[in-house]
Design brief:
The complex is a heterodimer of chains A (117) and B (112). Helices cover 0% and strands 51% of the residues of chain A. Chain A is built from no helices and eleven strands. Classes of the chains: A mainly beta (117), B mainly beta (112).
């Protein structure tokens, strides 16, 4: 199947700093990418839908000014957690959907574990 | 909006046993249903994808079924092994443009 990468795989930062997470589709083009968040022992919760060249659509309760999403190309989306606080510590997983293909399968990155001290 | 529920939340079985994990969804107009495996602290591994026109998919010891009319999917694992221990997540989407919505998962422990 198609491959999605994320960088970094883990990051530790101080409270108040900003962290950028990259999501790349390595061998396919993705007009749509999704960002999920997973707290310990919880399921994946959709944060936002990112469309190439347009503004992201955020789920209810997700602060768009805190979680900045940029989808500048068909293979790259970034999530920036601004002014991070300990409650933002979580596992962030991106997903990309193929531009072409019959079943519109979502492919998932390996995740980024963010720890805010 | 699609809602996905999984039961049981946790399951412990002896090695070799066949088992069934259940998933239910609220909107029968489901487009794709996918089963994933997640090991502790790791990302998702896609196991099986069932499109709305399909009733089941098989891969090795795994078989997933989809019944849209009843809003249910099951994941059948044959001859379970300790290496099958993980959390199994069910997720569904309503169209090719909407994202997958996840259930809370079933945490499976296979005891040797």
């Amino acid at each position: 199947g198609a491959v999605v990468s994320q960088h970094p795989s883990w990051v530790i930062c101080k409270s108040g700093t900003s962290v950028k997470i990259e999501c790349r589709s390595l061998d396919f083009q993705a007009t749509t990418m999704f960002w999920y968040r997973q707290f310990p022992k919880q399921s994946l919760m959709l944060m936002a839908t990112s469309n190439e060249g347009s503004k992201a659509t955020y789920e209810q309760g997700v602060e768009k000014d805190k979680f900045l999403i940029n989808h500048a190309s068909l293979t790259l989306s970034t999530l920036t957690v601004t002014s991070a606080h300990p409650e933002d510590s979580s596992f962030y997983i991106c997903s990309a959907r193929e531009l072409t293909g019959g079943n519109f399968e979502q492919f998932f990155g390996p995740g980024t574990r963010l720890t805010v001290l | 909006k699609q809602e996905v529920t999984q039961i049981p939340a946790a399951l412990s079985v002896p090695e070799g046993e066949n088992l069934v994990l259940n998933c239910s969804f609220t909107d029968s107009a489901i487009y794709n249903l996918q089963w994933f495996r997640q090991d502790p602290g790791k990302g998702l591994t896609s196991l099986l994808l069932i499109q709305s026109s399909q009733r089941e998919q098989t891969s090795g010891r795994l078989n997933a079924s989809l019944d849209k009319s009843s809003g249910r999917s099951t994941l059948y694992i044959a001859a379970s092994q300790p290496g099958d221990s993980a959390t199994y997540l069910c997720a569904g989407s309503n169209s090719g443009n909407t994202p997958l919505v996840f259930g809370k998962g079933t945490r499976l422990s296979v005891i040797a």
